[in-house]
Amino acid sequence: MFTRRLLLAASTASLLTRPAILRAAEYPDRPITLVIGYAPGALTDVMVRLVAEKMAQELGQPVVVENRTGAATAIASTAVANARPDGYTLLIGTNSLAINPALLPGATPKDPLTELEPIGEVYYSPFALLARRGLPANNLAELIALARQKPGELNYGSSGSGSVNHLLTELLLQRSGMEIVHIPYRGGAPALVELRSGRIDLFYATPLDSQPLLRDGVAHPILMSSPQRIPMMPDVPSVAESFEGCTGVLWQGLFSPPGTPAPIRERLFTVLRKVIEAPELRQNVASRGVVLMDGDAAALRRRLAEEMRIWPEVIRQGGITPG
User: Fold this and answer.
1) 112 within 8 A of 80, measured Cβ to Cβ
2) Peptide bond into 231 cis (omega under 30)
3) Are 227 and 170 within 8 A, CB to CB?
4) What single DSSP character describes residue 154?
5) Is the pLDDT of residue 68 over 80?
6) Sign of CA dihedral 34, 35, 38, 40
7) Contact 138, 145 (CB under 8 A)
8) Of all helices (H) and strands (E), which one includes residue 297?
9) In this predicted model, what pLDDT tens digit does every residue of 270-309 receive, in sequence order?
10) What number of CA atoms fall less than 13 Å from residue 36's CA on the CB side?
């Protein structure tokens, strides 16, 4: 009798676990939703759609991009954090996951390291610090000297209070001791217009957005925010070449809800890695000033953890509040 009960229990356990195993093995068998917290048309959205198209080809199922904007991307990340952990609702998360807990205390997820499951890194885009035409500073040393000669007289624009390019500029100011006035805008486009007209002195722009201003001679580059130079702008030095501790980029990573089965996460990372290594995608993004990354879940977790250490202090020291 005892043996029969053991066999029955083992058989029942097998039946209970088998559907999950089958689901993982057959994944995916229907369309996948890829949620992003940015509006259509921005670099972040364009990159997601390029990756989603390639992922769909590899997975044999549609990968539908869903733009869920609002609350500095918190609406999108919260939706995925609360979704079923079955691999059919995924998030393309960015730096905002690390910024929001300090900038927007009421926003969720409050701890993205536990409320989301990292799968792998996707890409990063550095920023080029542009100076208006006529500003007598062609490199970081000259800019620091100019700012010290005219404390509080220079200004810089950003895509909004608490945006990545705002925090990167504030980080540079805090570490270098420069006093430069912040002028926030509602997005990068109006800031670029103001830089072109000479009404602001400095702006951290993406390499792609930088090109028209550089081509027209209405701005000149001072440095790149990335740890190293990029092929699109090889003559522009990285900030790391002259000043340590001020590098930073806009990055994207793939996340799933917590509790997503490991086989599904592994399948997604394998596909993501294959997509990122495709020569045609690399050629496509090189002209956008984008650098593809192949870091795994551990690398993405480290990146997020590091930024969750840095940005709260920058926000606190700068007295930064949401725009």
Assistant:
1) no
2) no
3) no
4) -
5) yes
6) positive
7) no
8) helix 297-318
9) 999 999 999 989 888 888 899 999 999 999 999 999 999 9
10) 24
Q: What is the spatial distance between Cα 28 and Cα 25, in angstroms, rounded to a whole number?
A: 8
- Look at residues 173, 202, 132 and name the one whose alpha carbon lies nearest to residue 317: 173
pLDDT for position 23: 56
Secondary-structure breakdown of the chain: helix, strand, coil percentages, each rounded to the nearest 5: 50, 20, 35
Whether residue 104 has pLDDT greater than 70: yes
Residue where the block lists tokens 């058989």: 11
The tokens for 6 are: 């053991």
99 near 162, Cβ under 8 Å?
yes
Which residue type is seen at 158?
A: S
Which pair of tokens denotes residue 198?
Answer: 């000479």
Mean pLDDT score across all residues of the chain: 92
**CA gap 1, 99 in Å, rounded:** 60
Q: Structure pTM?
A: 0.89
Residue 291 DSSP code: E
**Domains of the chain and CATH, by start:** 30-124+249-318 (3.40.190.150), 128-241 (3.40.190.10)
pLDDT for residue 199: 98
What is the structure's pLDDT at 42?
84
Token code pair at residue 116: 């989301």
Instruction: Describe the strand order of the beta sheet including 155-158 as a list of residue ranges.
Output: 181-184, 155-158, 202-205, 128-132, 219-224
Residue 261 preceded by cis peptide, ω within 30? no
Please state the three-class secondary structure of 194-230 as a single string.
Answer: HHHHCCCCEEEECHHHHHHHHHCCCEEEEEECCCCCC
